[in-house]
Structure formats: structure tokens, C-alpha cells
Amino acid sequence: MANTIIVLDFGSQYAQLIARKLREVQVYCELFPFDSVLEDILALEPSGFVLSGGPNSIYDPGAPQIPGYVLESKLPILGICYGMQALTYALGGKVSPSSDKEYGAAELITIKSNPLLKDSTQQVWMSHGDRIETPPGGFEVLAISENSPVAAMGDIKNQRYGLQFHPEVHHTPHGKEVLRRFAVDICQITPNWTSESVVSQSVAEIKEQVGDQMVLSAVSGGVDSSVATALVQKAVGDQLVAIFVDHGLLRKGEAEGVVATLQDNLGIELVVVDAKEIFFKALMGVTEPEKKRKIIGEKFIRIFEEQAKLLGMPPFLVQGTIYPDVVESRAPERGHAEKIKTHHNVGGLPEDMKFELIEPLRYLFKDEVRRVGEAIGLPTEMVWRQPFPGPGLAVRCLGEITPERIFRLQEADAIFTEALEKAGLLQITEKDGEISGTSQAFAVLLPVRSVGVMGDVRTYQEAVALRAVTTEDFMTADWARLPHELLAEVAGRIVNEVDGINRVVYDITSKPPSTIEWE
Ligand code: XMP
Fold it and tell me: Which of 31, 49, 143, 285 has the CA that lies 20 to 30 A from 467?
């Protein structure tokens, strides 16, 4: 695929962000570890390289170096932070440790007109110790900052550039423009990576892969499996059969919503398996979280296997693998795991069930998956919904799982969700640097009974905890500062409207030390 930028990852926490920002300006790019083999890179016929930042100092023993083929290719190069230092070192310039580490916002002053930096001054984000003392031969200083005598450098003739700041982060407001200029003006890429182009390209590829054979898919109602399935259906129509196992542990109205959207609206042939009784029976008396997960996973596989056999074992299976999963599996220490992935067995399926995988989302970031979902007609609420764990409400119903307790939890959760939605807080919004809303919000039913009084009657009933967090990556999270009035209204409604609950508490722990889910 020509028209592609290769981002080489030198270990930066921002490497995925560089790739996402390029894609946001409709430039296709792929992220590889810095030591990837040449063939993998050349297969994409790159138009240019971006070298990411990284935690090392270039003089550290074993510090990652730019692969020879990058410099030999004569393609345009943009080194960012460590990538700039590695470029300097490789081309004979001088990098030195700086006594003034520069971290945070800085003013960048452009001192030489160049194709990358058009603003005479701009705010940028710095995060570095080492700095460039002398650029390599052929390079000129393009911009400076208070602590960086070489904040940007370039060999304009040979189209090689280095930036000491991070154009990919939010705190460099014009950074995306800088990346766009590198890709479009310098690498001559046509910015045509759009949801529509992804859809038409995927459809063509899936058609070619599948021919006239049958394809199987498992949908959970989650974003990835729904979008992947809908894309495949667009390509192969009724050669696709999707299986939806209703384990009874979804949120209020969710199972009906999945069927209505996929079957009724999109015309996907959906086998709906009502497995509620099977799951409730298997979970009876189980209170240990990991045991719940294991039982649910195993039961799901059994049911899926039965259905696949009934359908004559189609040779293809749709998987909702997304790009961050692929990037993780490309991590150098795991070797080239990715190669094995395209024709292997899906986690947990029995040995004799081999499928060829169709993974139409494997090059997409989550937000791109959502946009593709919208482009093929999935409803906004399904596509932009908050994450929901595979084991569903089983891990939010602490203690024993019974239909009655799950019903109680569904009702409480629906009240909380409805109130958040009405207040516009069911998603994250940012205004003037202020974050509001929630990344994930839900109710948890506690296996705790406490005393209450309703009317003149003493009650002894269960408690519900409300959990709402803000987070970017779900690895760390803060509890959402929801308005007290909203919490009061939700608590009042839950206690009044849901039988068996007489107390509501709000979880005010962050992750870490807590986790987002309670189990
Ligand atoms: P924790 O609770 O670890 O959750 O802070 C982080 C994110 O992962 C989701 N999560 C799960 N998703 N199966 C899933 O598919 C699971 O067993 C599971 N456990 C947690 C959780 O909802 C949150 O978004």
C-alpha cells in the first residue's frame, strides 16, 4: 500500500498518538517497533518515516538506533524527541545531556522559514533531558525555545527533520498541522484515509478473501464485534450468519437493542440463542469473581460450538481485533506474533474448530472503528457507547448471581444511565480545559444488607454502589465529580423504584489503587 507513513516506535508512550493524529488528518500510517524487519516495512511501500520519542538517552548502552534501511531509503524522515536525537547521532551531529531538563509547555520561535513550521511562534509541549548541541551536517536550526537551542532542525534539501517537542500531544495545539505538513507537503501523500474509503476497501478485501463461502460471527452487542460483523455483512450479504448468545447478563433492554439493530435494521442473519437459564444455572452459588468469568467464558464457547456445528461449520470467522491489539502483538519481545494470528485458533475454541479469521478492524483505532460503524449505518448510541465487560453484569452483581438480583441491578443501572444521559454526562466532554462527563458509569449491586426505614416500616435490604470514572486509557482512572443534585436524584429514584434496595453509595476511589469494576 503506497501512500503510507511508517511510524517507528522507540518506546514512547505517545507513539500510538502520533499514528492517531496522522490518521485524523486522513493520512494512513502504521506503527512498528523500531527494530522491525525490513520486509514488513517495505511491503507497505512507505512514503516517509516518523521516528517516535522514547525513554532512552542515545548514549545509553544498547540504546535503540535508527535501522540502516531508513537512512538508505532517501525517503523523508521526521524525528520526534528521541527520534530527533537518534537521527542526529546517526548522521554525526552532537547530542548532550542538558542540565535543564525541559518538561511542559514552551514557546517555540521559528527562526528560519521552512515547510514544516509556519507559525513564527507557537506553544509546544516539551519532555526531554538530552538535547541537540550541534545538528548533523546539512541540517539547519529551524526553531529554538528557551531551553533548546535546537528545538527544530531540518535538512530541507534531503527532507529530513527533527523536532525536540511533541507535535502529537494535545498540549501542542498546532502539532497536528505540523504532522500534516510533513505527510502531505513533504512526503506528498494524498490525504484520503476516510471512514468511507476504509469501508469500500474493506468490503473489496473481504469479498476477495471469502469468495462464495460461508462466514460465522459472534456478536455481543459491543462496538467492535458489531462493526466488524456489519462490515462483513456489507461485503458478503447472506453468506454471513451471526450468533448472539443472550446470557441474561446484559443491561436493561440491551439484548433487544442488539437484535433490533443488527437483524431488523441491518438485515444481518442473526441466530439468537436464549441461554439465560443455562448461564444462571451454571452460576448458581458462585461468588468468586474469577470463577464467574471462567464459567461464562466456557459456557459461551460450548454454545457457540453447538451453533457452529448446526450451521455446518463455516470456514471463516469474523473477529473484532482492533489496531491497538495488533500493535501490542507486534511488540519486539513477542517476535512476529502477528503473522501466526491470521490463521490460528481463536482463544478458547476447541482444537478441532479451526477457522480462517476475517479481521476487518485490525488496522483501526477505536475512534476510527466508531466512525466506520456510523458510516455503515449503525446507530450512534451503539457505536459511541461506553465499554462493557464481556462477563457483563455478572461482575457487577457482587455475591451470588440470581435472576432476581440481576433484574434489581439492571433497574438501578438503567436509572443511573438515564439520569446521566439526560444531563449530557454519559460521555466525556472538555471545555476550556475542564473535563466533565464520564468515560464509564454503572451501578454495582452489593451483597450487603443494611437497615433502612421506608414510611414507618423498618427495611433490611441490599445496597447499590454507583461507579463513574473519567479516564483516557482505562489503565488509570479518576472518579467522576458528578453534580450532587444528580447523585441525590438517582439515589432517590433507585430506592423508591427498585424493589429490594434501600441504600445507595457513590464510589470515590481512583484507579489505582482501586479498579474501575468492583470484581
Ligand atoms: P478494571 O476493572 O480492570 O477495568 O479497572 C478496566 C476496563 O476493562 C473492563 N473490564 C473487562 N472487560 N472482560 C472485559 O471484556 C472482563 O473480564 C473485564 N474486566 C474489566 C472494564 O469494564 C474497564 O473498562
Answer: 285
Q: What is the largest CA-CA distance in the chain?
A: 87
Residue nearest to atom 8 of ligand 1 (CA): 389
Set 29, 30, 102, 168: catalytic member: 168
Q: Specify whether 351 is located in the same domain as 464.
A: no
- The preferred substitution site among 440, 517, 518, 519 for testing ligand 1, maximizing ligand atoms within 8 Å of CB, is 517
CA of 355 to the centre of ligand 1 (A): 27
* Residues 23 and 164 both lie in one domain: yes
Q: Is 24 a catalytic residue?
A: no
pTM of the entire structure? 0.86
CATH code for the domain of 237: 3.40.50.620
pLDDT digits (tens, 9 = 90+) for 169-223: 989 999 999 999 999 999 999 999 999 999 999 999 999 999 999 999 999 989 9
Distances in Å between the Cα of 151 and the Cα atoms of 281, 344, 348 are: 64, 47, 51
Same domain, 354 and 467: no
What is the distance in A from the centroid of ligand 1 to the CA of 471? 13
- The total number of structural domains that make up the chain: 3
Q: Are 248 and 363 contained in the same domain?
A: yes
Q: Are 92 and 137 in contact (CB under 8 A)?
A: yes
499, part of any domain: yes
